[in-house]
Amino acid sequence: MTQPPSVPAGSWWRDAVIYEVYVRSFADAGGDGVGDLPGVRSRLPYLRRLGVDALWLTPFYPSPMADFGYDVADYRDVDPVFGTLDDARALVADAHAHGLRILVDLVPNHTSDAHRWFRAALAAAPGSPERDRYVFRDGRGAEGSEPPNDWRSVFGGPAWRRVPDGQWYLHLFAPEQPDLNWSNAEVRDEFADVLRFWLDLGVDGFRVDVAHGMVKAAGLPDAGPDQGLDVPYFDRDGVHELHRAFRRILDSYPGGRIGVAEAWAPTNERLALYVRPDEMHQAFNFHYLTTPWDAGALRAAIDASLATAGAVGAPATWVLSNHDVHRHVTRYGGGAAGLARARAAALLTLALPGSAYLYQGEELGLPEVLDLPPEVCHDPQARRGDGAGRDGCRVPIPWSGDAPPFGFSTGTSWLPMPPEWRSLTVAAQDGDPASTLSLYRDALRLRREHPALGDGPPPRWLDAPPGVLVFVREAGGRALGCAVNAGSAPVRVAAGPVLLASGPVTASGGVLELPPDTAAWWEGDRSVTER
Asked: Among this protein's residues, is 209 annotated catalytic?
Protein backbone atom coordinates (compact mmCIF):
# COMPACT_ATOMS: atom_id res chain seq x y z
CA MET A 1 0.00 0.00 0.00
CA THR A 2 1.37 3.42 -0.91
CA GLN A 3 1.26 6.28 1.53
CA PRO A 4 -0.79 9.42 0.86
CA PRO A 5 0.91 12.78 0.28
CA SER A 6 2.57 14.41 3.27
CA VAL A 7 -0.04 17.10 3.92
CA PRO A 8 -1.28 17.32 7.54
CA ALA A 9 -3.71 14.44 7.76
CA GLY A 10 -6.17 16.23 9.99
CA SER A 11 -6.69 19.25 7.77
CA TRP A 12 -6.13 18.56 4.09
CA TRP A 13 -9.77 17.98 3.21
CA ARG A 14 -11.07 21.17 4.84
CA ASP A 15 -10.01 23.33 1.91
CA ALA A 16 -9.02 20.77 -0.71
CA VAL A 17 -9.78 21.31 -4.37
CA ILE A 18 -11.04 17.93 -5.60
CA TYR A 19 -11.32 17.15 -9.31
CA GLU A 20 -14.06 14.79 -10.46
CA VAL A 21 -12.83 12.33 -13.07
CA TYR A 22 -15.69 10.74 -15.01
CA VAL A 23 -13.49 7.80 -15.95
CA ARG A 24 -15.30 6.85 -19.19
CA SER A 25 -14.71 10.33 -20.60
CA PHE A 26 -11.35 11.50 -19.28
CA ALA A 27 -8.62 9.70 -21.22
CA ASP A 28 -8.53 6.44 -23.17
CA ALA A 29 -5.23 4.56 -23.17
CA GLY A 30 -6.67 1.38 -24.69
CA GLY A 31 -7.94 2.79 -27.99
CA ASP A 32 -11.49 1.45 -27.66
CA GLY A 33 -13.07 4.90 -27.30
CA VAL A 34 -13.81 4.51 -23.57
CA GLY A 35 -11.72 6.19 -20.90
CA ASP A 36 -9.84 3.93 -18.49
CA LEU A 37 -7.58 3.90 -15.43
CA PRO A 38 -4.31 3.84 -17.43
CA GLY A 39 -5.65 6.89 -19.26
CA VAL A 40 -6.22 8.70 -15.97
CA ARG A 41 -2.74 7.68 -14.86
CA SER A 42 -1.21 9.14 -18.02
CA ARG A 43 -2.79 12.53 -17.31
CA LEU A 44 -1.70 12.90 -13.67
CA PRO A 45 1.00 15.46 -14.63
CA TYR A 46 -1.74 17.62 -16.18
CA LEU A 47 -3.79 17.49 -12.99
CA ARG A 48 -0.77 18.22 -10.84
CA ARG A 49 0.01 21.28 -12.96
CA LEU A 50 -3.63 22.38 -12.82
CA GLY A 51 -3.20 22.60 -9.06
CA VAL A 52 -5.85 20.29 -7.59
CA ASP A 53 -5.31 18.31 -4.39
CA ALA A 54 -7.23 15.11 -5.06
CA LEU A 55 -9.18 13.17 -7.68
CA TRP A 56 -12.60 11.62 -7.24
CA LEU A 57 -13.00 8.70 -9.65
CA THR A 58 -16.47 7.64 -10.74
CA PRO A 59 -17.18 3.87 -10.55
CA PHE A 60 -14.80 1.58 -12.40
CA TYR A 61 -16.04 -1.71 -10.90
CA PRO A 62 -17.34 -4.68 -12.91
CA SER A 63 -20.79 -3.69 -14.12
CA PRO A 64 -23.31 -4.37 -16.90
CA MET A 65 -23.30 -0.54 -17.29
CA ALA A 66 -27.07 -0.13 -17.07
CA ASP A 67 -26.26 3.12 -15.24
CA PHE A 68 -22.67 3.47 -16.48
CA GLY A 69 -21.06 1.82 -13.48
CA TYR A 70 -23.43 2.88 -10.70
CA ASP A 71 -24.86 -0.64 -11.00
CA VAL A 72 -22.02 -2.56 -9.37
CA ALA A 73 -21.66 -6.30 -9.87
CA ASP A 74 -18.43 -6.71 -7.86
CA TYR A 75 -17.18 -4.11 -5.38
CA ARG A 76 -13.64 -5.50 -5.15
CA ASP A 77 -12.48 -5.53 -8.75
CA VAL A 78 -12.10 -3.41 -11.90
CA ASP A 79 -14.22 -3.82 -15.02
CA PRO A 80 -12.04 -4.92 -17.96
CA VAL A 81 -13.18 -1.90 -19.95
CA PHE A 82 -11.39 0.28 -17.37
CA GLY A 83 -8.35 -1.92 -16.69
CA THR A 84 -7.31 -4.21 -13.86
CA LEU A 85 -6.75 -4.13 -10.12
CA ASP A 86 -3.05 -3.70 -10.85
CA ASP A 87 -3.96 -0.59 -12.87
CA ALA A 88 -5.87 0.72 -9.86
CA ARG A 89 -2.89 0.08 -7.58
CA ALA A 90 -0.53 1.78 -10.03
CA LEU A 91 -2.85 4.77 -10.35
CA VAL A 92 -3.01 5.24 -6.59
CA ALA A 93 0.78 4.91 -6.27
CA ASP A 94 1.45 7.37 -9.10
CA ALA A 95 -1.12 9.85 -7.79
CA HIS A 96 0.55 9.83 -4.38
CA ALA A 97 3.92 10.33 -6.04
CA HIS A 98 2.46 13.43 -7.73
CA GLY A 99 1.13 14.73 -4.41
CA LEU A 100 -2.47 13.87 -5.32
CA ARG A 101 -4.99 11.89 -3.29
CA ILE A 102 -7.53 9.45 -4.70
CA LEU A 103 -11.19 9.14 -3.72
CA VAL A 104 -13.33 6.38 -5.19
CA ASP A 105 -17.07 6.00 -5.48
CA LEU A 106 -18.86 3.79 -2.98
CA VAL A 107 -22.34 2.73 -4.14
CA PRO A 108 -24.08 1.32 -1.04
CA ASN A 109 -27.77 2.00 -1.72
CA HIS A 110 -28.09 -0.64 -4.44
CA THR A 111 -26.16 -3.25 -6.39
CA SER A 112 -26.44 -4.41 -9.97
CA ASP A 113 -29.02 -7.07 -10.73
CA ALA A 114 -25.98 -9.02 -11.98
CA HIS A 115 -24.45 -9.06 -8.49
CA ARG A 116 -24.07 -12.59 -7.10
CA TRP A 117 -26.28 -11.67 -4.14
CA PHE A 118 -29.19 -10.62 -6.32
CA ARG A 119 -28.89 -13.67 -8.53
CA ALA A 120 -29.03 -15.78 -5.37
CA ALA A 121 -32.06 -13.82 -4.19
CA LEU A 122 -33.94 -14.52 -7.41
CA ALA A 123 -33.11 -18.21 -7.13
CA ALA A 124 -34.23 -18.37 -3.48
CA ALA A 125 -37.73 -18.45 -2.04
CA PRO A 126 -39.68 -15.52 -0.54
CA GLY A 127 -38.65 -14.99 3.07
CA SER A 128 -35.21 -16.53 2.53
CA PRO A 129 -31.97 -15.04 3.91
CA GLU A 130 -30.89 -14.34 0.34
CA ARG A 131 -33.90 -12.12 -0.28
CA ASP A 132 -33.48 -10.36 3.05
CA ARG A 133 -30.32 -8.71 1.72
CA TYR A 134 -32.61 -6.69 -0.56
CA VAL A 135 -36.06 -5.11 -0.20
CA PHE A 136 -38.51 -7.76 -1.41
CA ARG A 137 -42.20 -7.47 -0.56
CA ASP A 138 -45.52 -9.02 -1.51
CA GLY A 139 -47.70 -6.89 -3.73
CA ARG A 140 -51.06 -5.28 -3.05
CA GLY A 141 -54.37 -5.87 -4.74
CA ALA A 142 -55.75 -9.03 -6.26
CA GLU A 143 -53.13 -11.79 -6.12
CA GLY A 144 -50.47 -9.18 -5.25
CA SER A 145 -50.55 -7.75 -8.74
CA GLU A 146 -50.00 -4.14 -7.64
CA PRO A 147 -46.70 -2.73 -6.28
CA PRO A 148 -46.31 -2.77 -2.48
CA ASN A 149 -46.59 1.04 -2.30
CA ASP A 150 -46.63 4.18 -4.46
CA TRP A 151 -42.92 4.95 -4.44
CA ARG A 152 -41.48 6.34 -7.65
CA SER A 153 -38.08 5.71 -9.19
CA VAL A 154 -35.75 8.70 -9.49
CA PHE A 155 -35.42 7.66 -13.14
CA GLY A 156 -39.19 7.63 -13.67
CA GLY A 157 -41.97 5.09 -13.26
CA PRO A 158 -42.72 2.83 -10.29
CA ALA A 159 -39.84 1.95 -7.95
CA TRP A 160 -40.87 -1.73 -7.90
CA ARG A 161 -40.42 -4.63 -10.30
CA ARG A 162 -42.20 -7.97 -10.03
CA VAL A 163 -40.29 -11.27 -10.19
CA PRO A 164 -41.72 -14.55 -11.58
CA ASP A 165 -42.83 -15.93 -8.19
CA GLY A 166 -45.01 -12.84 -7.65
CA GLN A 167 -42.95 -10.83 -5.16
CA TRP A 168 -41.68 -7.34 -5.91
CA TYR A 169 -38.26 -5.80 -5.29
CA LEU A 170 -37.47 -2.14 -4.70
CA HIS A 171 -35.30 -0.11 -7.08
CA LEU A 172 -35.21 3.61 -6.38
CA PHE A 173 -33.21 4.03 -9.59
CA ALA A 174 -33.16 1.72 -12.63
CA PRO A 175 -34.74 -1.76 -12.41
CA GLU A 176 -31.21 -3.12 -12.86
CA GLN A 177 -30.27 -1.46 -9.54
CA PRO A 178 -32.08 -3.33 -6.72
CA ASP A 179 -31.96 -1.56 -3.34
CA LEU A 180 -30.12 -3.22 -0.49
CA ASN A 181 -31.66 -3.81 2.93
CA TRP A 182 -29.38 -1.98 5.35
CA SER A 183 -31.17 -3.40 8.39
CA ASN A 184 -29.53 -6.70 7.44
CA ALA A 185 -26.29 -7.32 9.38
CA GLU A 186 -24.76 -9.19 6.45
CA VAL A 187 -25.10 -6.09 4.26
CA ARG A 188 -23.44 -3.90 6.89
CA ASP A 189 -20.59 -6.37 7.35
CA GLU A 190 -20.08 -6.70 3.60
CA PHE A 191 -19.64 -2.97 3.06
CA ALA A 192 -17.36 -2.63 6.05
CA ASP A 193 -15.14 -5.18 4.33
CA VAL A 194 -15.42 -3.35 0.99
CA LEU A 195 -14.22 -0.12 2.63
CA ARG A 196 -11.25 -1.91 4.17
CA PHE A 197 -10.39 -3.54 0.84
CA TRP A 198 -9.94 -0.19 -0.91
CA LEU A 199 -8.37 1.53 2.09
CA ASP A 200 -5.83 -1.29 2.25
CA LEU A 201 -5.14 -0.72 -1.44
CA GLY A 202 -4.30 2.89 -0.56
CA VAL A 203 -7.26 5.06 -1.54
CA ASP A 204 -7.72 8.23 0.49
CA GLY A 205 -11.48 8.13 0.86
CA PHE A 206 -14.89 7.58 -0.66
CA ARG A 207 -17.62 9.60 -2.25
CA VAL A 208 -20.73 7.85 -0.92
CA ASP A 209 -23.41 7.63 -3.61
CA VAL A 210 -27.04 8.23 -2.53
CA ALA A 211 -25.88 8.60 1.08
CA HIS A 212 -29.36 9.82 2.01
CA GLY A 213 -31.20 6.78 0.63
CA MET A 214 -29.80 3.76 2.44
CA VAL A 215 -32.56 3.57 5.09
CA LYS A 216 -36.29 3.43 4.35
CA ALA A 217 -39.13 4.26 6.73
CA ALA A 218 -40.42 1.34 8.76
CA GLY A 219 -43.40 -0.31 7.11
CA LEU A 220 -42.63 1.30 3.72
CA PRO A 221 -45.60 3.72 3.85
CA ASP A 222 -46.96 5.44 0.77
CA ALA A 223 -45.19 8.67 -0.17
CA GLY A 224 -48.13 10.52 -1.70
CA PRO A 225 -48.36 12.42 -4.97
CA ASP A 226 -45.56 14.96 -4.38
CA GLN A 227 -42.43 12.84 -4.13
CA GLY A 228 -39.61 15.29 -3.65
CA LEU A 229 -36.98 15.05 -0.90
CA ASP A 230 -39.30 14.75 2.11
CA VAL A 231 -40.35 11.16 1.42
CA PRO A 232 -40.23 7.86 3.36
CA TYR A 233 -37.29 6.59 1.33
CA PHE A 234 -34.85 9.51 1.62
CA ASP A 235 -33.05 11.25 4.49
CA ARG A 236 -34.25 8.94 7.26
CA ASP A 237 -32.59 9.40 10.64
CA GLY A 238 -31.27 5.84 10.53
CA VAL A 239 -28.71 6.66 7.83
CA HIS A 240 -26.61 8.47 10.39
CA GLU A 241 -25.85 5.32 12.33
CA LEU A 242 -24.50 3.82 9.10
CA HIS A 243 -22.34 6.83 8.37
CA ARG A 244 -20.93 6.77 11.88
CA ALA A 245 -19.90 3.16 11.27
CA PHE A 246 -18.19 4.22 8.02
CA ARG A 247 -16.41 7.04 9.89
CA ARG A 248 -15.03 4.66 12.52
CA ILE A 249 -13.46 2.59 9.77
CA LEU A 250 -12.00 5.66 8.05
CA ASP A 251 -10.56 6.94 11.32
CA SER A 252 -8.88 3.59 11.97
CA TYR A 253 -6.53 4.20 8.99
CA PRO A 254 -3.65 6.69 8.91
CA GLY A 255 -3.31 9.60 6.54
CA GLY A 256 -6.60 11.45 6.90
CA ARG A 257 -8.97 9.15 4.96
CA ILE A 258 -12.31 10.86 4.31
CA GLY A 259 -15.93 10.24 3.44
CA VAL A 260 -17.96 12.58 1.23
CA ALA A 261 -21.73 12.27 1.24
CA GLU A 262 -23.78 12.68 -1.89
CA ALA A 263 -26.79 13.61 0.19
CA TRP A 264 -29.96 15.42 -0.74
CA ALA A 265 -32.00 16.76 2.16
CA PRO A 266 -35.08 19.00 2.40
CA THR A 267 -33.20 21.74 4.32
CA ASN A 268 -29.65 22.91 4.90
CA GLU A 269 -30.09 22.00 8.56
CA ARG A 270 -30.88 18.40 7.66
CA LEU A 271 -27.90 18.29 5.29
CA ALA A 272 -25.58 19.49 8.07
CA LEU A 273 -26.40 16.35 10.06
CA TYR A 274 -24.36 14.32 7.57
CA VAL A 275 -21.16 16.21 8.45
CA ARG A 276 -21.29 16.16 12.23
CA PRO A 277 -17.87 15.40 13.76
CA ASP A 278 -18.45 11.63 13.91
CA GLU A 279 -20.02 11.23 10.45
CA MET A 280 -18.91 12.20 6.96
CA HIS A 281 -16.16 14.78 6.48
CA GLN A 282 -17.97 16.59 3.66
CA ALA A 283 -21.34 16.68 1.91
CA PHE A 284 -21.95 18.06 -1.55
CA ASN A 285 -23.53 21.51 -1.60
CA PHE A 286 -26.28 21.09 -4.17
CA HIS A 287 -27.95 24.28 -2.92
CA TYR A 288 -25.04 26.29 -4.32
CA LEU A 289 -24.88 24.26 -7.55
CA THR A 290 -28.53 24.91 -8.33
CA THR A 291 -28.40 28.65 -7.58
CA PRO A 292 -28.94 30.85 -10.66
CA TRP A 293 -26.59 33.60 -11.80
CA ASP A 294 -28.09 36.23 -9.52
CA ALA A 295 -26.16 38.16 -6.87
CA GLY A 296 -28.88 38.04 -4.22
CA ALA A 297 -29.51 34.33 -4.68
CA LEU A 298 -25.79 33.55 -4.64
CA ARG A 299 -25.20 35.49 -1.44
CA ALA A 300 -28.17 33.79 0.24
CA ALA A 301 -26.86 30.36 -0.76
CA ILE A 302 -23.36 31.18 0.44
CA ASP A 303 -24.52 32.53 3.80
CA ALA A 304 -26.87 29.59 4.41
CA SER A 305 -24.21 27.06 3.45
CA LEU A 306 -21.55 28.58 5.69
CA ALA A 307 -23.94 28.92 8.63
CA THR A 308 -25.25 25.36 8.56
CA ALA A 309 -21.86 23.72 7.95
CA GLY A 310 -20.23 25.92 10.56
CA ALA A 311 -22.84 25.00 13.15
CA VAL A 312 -21.45 21.46 13.24
CA GLY A 313 -17.81 22.44 12.74
CA ALA A 314 -17.64 21.24 9.14
CA PRO A 315 -16.26 23.03 6.09
CA ALA A 316 -18.63 24.09 3.36
CA THR A 317 -18.21 22.58 -0.08
CA TRP A 318 -18.70 24.42 -3.36
CA VAL A 319 -19.46 22.83 -6.71
CA LEU A 320 -20.68 24.26 -10.03
CA SER A 321 -21.02 21.15 -12.21
CA ASN A 322 -20.83 17.37 -12.04
CA HIS A 323 -21.68 14.29 -14.12
CA ASP A 324 -25.40 14.53 -13.30
CA VAL A 325 -26.26 18.11 -14.33
CA HIS A 326 -25.88 20.38 -17.33
CA ARG A 327 -22.53 22.12 -17.38
CA HIS A 328 -22.73 25.58 -15.83
CA VAL A 329 -21.52 27.39 -18.97
CA THR A 330 -24.82 26.32 -20.50
CA ARG A 331 -26.91 26.73 -17.34
CA TYR A 332 -25.70 30.32 -17.11
CA GLY A 333 -26.99 31.10 -20.59
CA GLY A 334 -24.51 29.53 -22.99
CA GLY A 335 -22.43 31.26 -25.61
CA ALA A 336 -20.11 34.13 -24.73
CA ALA A 337 -22.30 35.28 -21.84
CA GLY A 338 -22.46 31.81 -20.32
CA LEU A 339 -18.70 31.39 -20.55
CA ALA A 340 -18.06 34.83 -19.02
CA ARG A 341 -20.39 34.00 -16.12
CA ALA A 342 -18.79 30.59 -15.65
CA ARG A 343 -15.34 32.17 -15.46
CA ALA A 344 -16.58 34.72 -12.93
CA ALA A 345 -18.29 31.96 -10.93
CA ALA A 346 -15.00 30.08 -10.77
CA LEU A 347 -13.30 33.00 -9.04
CA LEU A 348 -16.24 33.43 -6.68
CA THR A 349 -16.22 29.75 -5.81
CA LEU A 350 -12.48 29.48 -5.26
CA ALA A 351 -12.47 32.56 -3.02
CA LEU A 352 -14.96 31.05 -0.56
CA PRO A 353 -13.86 29.23 2.61
CA GLY A 354 -14.05 25.47 2.49
CA SER A 355 -13.48 22.81 -0.15
CA ALA A 356 -14.18 23.12 -3.88
CA TYR A 357 -15.05 20.41 -6.40
CA LEU A 358 -14.25 20.81 -10.08
CA TYR A 359 -15.83 18.68 -12.78
CA GLN A 360 -13.50 17.58 -15.55
CA GLY A 361 -13.56 19.99 -18.46
CA GLU A 362 -14.91 22.98 -16.60
CA GLU A 363 -11.34 24.31 -16.53
CA LEU A 364 -11.60 24.32 -20.34
CA GLY A 365 -14.91 26.20 -20.38
CA LEU A 366 -16.75 23.27 -21.97
CA PRO A 367 -20.48 23.79 -22.62
CA GLU A 368 -23.17 21.13 -22.44
CA VAL A 369 -23.55 19.16 -25.67
CA LEU A 370 -27.23 19.55 -26.48
CA ASP A 371 -27.44 17.96 -29.94
CA LEU A 372 -26.25 14.39 -29.41
CA PRO A 373 -27.98 11.98 -31.81
CA PRO A 374 -30.66 9.96 -29.98
CA GLU A 375 -29.08 6.68 -31.05
CA VAL A 376 -25.91 7.38 -29.01
CA CYS A 377 -27.72 8.44 -25.82
CA HIS A 378 -28.07 5.67 -23.26
CA ASP A 379 -28.62 7.45 -19.95
CA PRO A 380 -31.38 5.53 -18.10
CA GLN A 381 -32.68 8.77 -16.65
CA ALA A 382 -33.55 9.96 -20.15
CA ARG A 383 -34.86 6.61 -21.36
CA ARG A 384 -37.20 6.07 -18.39
CA GLY A 385 -38.06 9.58 -17.27
CA ASP A 386 -39.07 12.96 -18.59
CA GLY A 387 -35.66 14.63 -18.34
CA ALA A 388 -33.22 15.42 -21.10
CA GLY A 389 -30.70 13.00 -19.66
CA ARG A 390 -27.10 13.36 -18.59
CA ASP A 391 -25.21 12.30 -21.70
CA GLY A 392 -24.46 15.88 -22.73
CA CYS A 393 -22.26 16.59 -19.70
CA ARG A 394 -20.43 13.28 -20.10
CA VAL A 395 -18.97 13.82 -23.56
CA PRO A 396 -15.20 13.12 -23.43
CA ILE A 397 -12.93 16.07 -22.87
CA PRO A 398 -10.68 17.34 -25.69
CA TRP A 399 -6.91 17.20 -25.26
CA SER A 400 -5.32 18.12 -28.59
CA GLY A 401 -5.67 18.22 -32.36
CA ASP A 402 -8.06 19.78 -34.83
CA ALA A 403 -10.70 17.06 -35.11
CA PRO A 404 -12.51 14.57 -32.86
CA PRO A 405 -11.61 12.65 -30.78
CA PHE A 406 -9.10 15.41 -29.95
CA GLY A 407 -6.49 13.18 -28.39
CA PHE A 408 -8.94 11.50 -26.02
CA SER A 409 -8.51 8.17 -27.84
CA THR A 410 -6.99 6.62 -30.92
CA GLY A 411 -10.42 5.17 -31.67
CA THR A 412 -13.90 6.64 -31.96
CA SER A 413 -15.05 8.18 -28.67
CA TRP A 414 -18.02 6.49 -27.01
CA LEU A 415 -19.96 9.76 -27.27
CA PRO A 416 -19.27 12.04 -30.26
CA MET A 417 -17.37 15.25 -29.62
CA PRO A 418 -18.32 18.56 -31.27
CA PRO A 419 -15.87 19.59 -34.02
CA GLU A 420 -16.00 23.18 -32.72
CA TRP A 421 -14.21 22.04 -29.57
CA ARG A 422 -10.94 22.36 -31.50
CA SER A 423 -10.52 25.79 -29.90
CA LEU A 424 -11.19 24.41 -26.40
CA THR A 425 -8.60 21.62 -26.27
CA VAL A 426 -5.96 21.58 -23.58
CA ALA A 427 -3.30 22.07 -26.25
CA ALA A 428 -5.12 25.06 -27.75
CA GLN A 429 -5.48 26.76 -24.36
CA ASP A 430 -2.10 25.84 -22.90
CA GLY A 431 0.16 28.88 -22.80
CA ASP A 432 -2.63 31.35 -23.65
CA PRO A 433 -2.82 33.68 -20.62
CA ALA A 434 -6.40 34.65 -21.52
CA SER A 435 -7.69 31.07 -21.73
CA THR A 436 -10.04 29.50 -19.24
CA LEU A 437 -7.41 26.85 -18.49
CA SER A 438 -4.91 29.57 -17.57
CA LEU A 439 -7.52 31.27 -15.40
CA TYR A 440 -8.05 28.08 -13.40
CA ARG A 441 -4.33 27.42 -13.07
CA ASP A 442 -3.71 30.96 -11.87
CA ALA A 443 -6.64 30.87 -9.45
CA LEU A 444 -5.57 27.54 -7.96
CA ARG A 445 -1.99 28.75 -7.58
CA LEU A 446 -3.12 31.90 -5.78
CA ARG A 447 -5.49 29.86 -3.64
CA ARG A 448 -2.53 27.84 -2.38
CA GLU A 449 -0.25 30.83 -1.92
CA HIS A 450 -2.50 33.51 -0.40
CA PRO A 451 -3.13 33.06 3.34
CA ALA A 452 -6.62 34.60 3.12
CA LEU A 453 -7.84 31.90 0.74
CA GLY A 454 -8.79 28.31 1.56
CA ASP A 455 -10.08 27.31 4.98
CA GLY A 456 -10.81 30.04 7.46
CA PRO A 457 -13.41 32.50 8.68
CA PRO A 458 -16.42 33.48 6.55
CA PRO A 459 -16.19 36.41 4.16
CA ARG A 460 -16.87 39.91 5.39
CA TRP A 461 -19.46 41.34 3.03
CA LEU A 462 -19.10 44.95 1.91
CA ASP A 463 -21.75 47.30 0.64
CA ALA A 464 -22.33 46.91 -3.07
CA PRO A 465 -24.80 48.07 -5.72
CA PRO A 466 -27.63 45.73 -6.75
CA GLY A 467 -26.37 42.80 -8.77
CA VAL A 468 -22.87 42.94 -7.30
CA LEU A 469 -21.14 40.89 -4.60
CA VAL A 470 -18.11 42.24 -2.77
CA PHE A 471 -16.37 40.63 0.16
CA VAL A 472 -13.03 40.51 1.92
CA ARG A 473 -11.26 37.61 3.57
CA GLU A 474 -8.41 38.16 6.01
CA ALA A 475 -5.79 35.82 7.45
CA GLY A 476 -2.09 35.81 8.20
CA GLY A 477 -1.93 39.61 8.26
CA ARG A 478 -3.16 39.90 4.69
CA ALA A 479 -6.53 40.56 3.07
CA LEU A 480 -7.97 39.53 -0.27
CA GLY A 481 -10.94 41.22 -1.85
CA CYS A 482 -13.32 39.62 -4.31
CA ALA A 483 -15.91 41.39 -6.41
CA VAL A 484 -18.41 39.74 -8.74
CA ASN A 485 -20.57 41.76 -11.10
CA ALA A 486 -23.65 39.68 -11.90
CA GLY A 487 -25.52 42.78 -13.06
CA SER A 488 -26.00 44.32 -16.48
CA ALA A 489 -23.85 47.47 -16.18
CA PRO A 490 -20.22 48.17 -15.25
CA VAL A 491 -19.43 49.07 -11.64
CA ARG A 492 -16.55 50.97 -10.11
CA VAL A 493 -14.84 49.33 -7.15
CA ALA A 494 -12.18 50.84 -4.94
CA ALA A 495 -9.57 48.11 -4.92
CA GLY A 496 -5.99 47.30 -4.22
CA PRO A 497 -3.64 45.79 -6.78
CA VAL A 498 -5.55 43.35 -8.95
CA LEU A 499 -4.29 39.78 -8.57
CA LEU A 500 -6.58 38.05 -11.05
CA ALA A 501 -9.69 38.81 -13.10
CA SER A 502 -12.03 36.57 -15.04
CA GLY A 503 -12.14 38.98 -17.97
CA PRO A 504 -10.73 42.33 -19.13
CA VAL A 505 -10.87 44.99 -16.41
CA THR A 506 -9.62 48.55 -16.16
CA ALA A 507 -7.75 49.62 -13.03
CA SER A 508 -6.36 53.08 -12.37
CA GLY A 509 -5.72 55.12 -9.26
CA GLY A 510 -7.02 52.45 -6.92
CA VAL A 511 -10.33 52.16 -8.75
CA LEU A 512 -11.34 49.03 -10.63
CA GLU A 513 -13.98 49.18 -13.35
CA LEU A 514 -15.68 45.79 -13.41
CA PRO A 515 -17.76 44.93 -16.49
CA PRO A 516 -20.90 42.76 -16.26
CA ASP A 517 -20.37 39.01 -15.76
CA THR A 518 -16.85 39.56 -14.48
CA ALA A 519 -15.07 38.83 -11.19
CA ALA A 520 -11.76 40.03 -9.79
CA TRP A 521 -9.48 39.36 -6.83
CA TRP A 522 -7.31 42.09 -5.38
CA GLU A 523 -4.88 42.55 -2.55
CA GLY A 524 -6.17 44.58 0.39
CA ASP A 525 -9.41 45.71 2.03
CA ARG A 526 -11.50 48.12 -0.06
CA SER A 527 -15.19 48.54 -0.82
CA VAL A 528 -17.46 49.60 -3.63
CA THR A 529 -17.65 53.38 -3.70
CA GLU A 530 -19.81 54.30 -6.65
CA ARG A 531 -21.73 52.89 -9.58
From this structure: yes
